[in-house]
Design brief:
By secondary structure, this protein is of the alpha+beta class. Helices cover 31% and strands 31% of the residues. It contains two helices and three strands; from the N terminus they run H-E-H-E-E. A three-stranded antiparallel sheet has the order 1-3-2. The chain is globular.
């Protein structure tokens, strides 16, 4: 939850999330849902990397006027 708060306050321009961080069936805890909502509203997925062991998604903060 601390990471979410730091990101929410705007201190983080880029966020890297492991592909396994979110559950595919959306049965997540409230804090994970809050993180997913934050990434979908204030960030855009910049790039994804797929490797044998893990997947990484890089999100960039979208500048809002």
């Amino acid at each position: 939850m601390r990471q979410y708060q730091e990101i929410r306050r705007g201190k983080i321009d880029y966020v890297v999330i492991a592909g396994e961080y979110f559950k595919p069936d959306d049965t997540e805890s409230p804090s994970l849902r809050a993180m997913r909502d934050l990434l979908s509203t204030e960030y855009c997925r910049e790039r994804s990397f797929f490797r044998e062991v893990t997947n990484l998604d890089i999100y960039r903060r979208v500048k809002r006027d």
